[in-house]
Specification:
Length: 93
């Protein structure tokens, strides 16, 4: 996770998406910290989703319950493009 509250995590199977999309690490915006003020949550965190089985939403729109090791998959190109377009640092992968 970075200082901006961005977590990178993999997906689980969703029959409506093609198989390649399932084998990617997606970026979830867990919240943000304004220039002045406290951290503002934007939704379910990846850790919360893994522990409670609650779905999270990736920047690309994918919704799933996280559960796999994100280091095993390449970063979703759509999530990466959105994050970089916002000036966020995205891990290589």
């Amino acid at each position: 996770m970075t200082d901006a509250g961005i977590a990178v995590t993999p997906t689980t199977t969703d029959p409506e998406l093609d198989g390649d999309h399932e084998r990617m690490t997606h970026i979830v915006l867990e919240g943000f910290r304004p220039e002045e003020g406290e951290f503002v949550p934007a939704g379910t965190s990846v850790v919360e989703g893994m522990v409670t089985g609650t779905a999270v939403r990736a920047l690309c729109g994918k919704i799933w319950v996280p559960g796999r090791d994100p280091r095993r998959y390449p970063v979703c190109p759509t999530c990466k493009e959105i994050a970089q377009g916002r000036g966020w640092s995205v891990p290589a992968g």
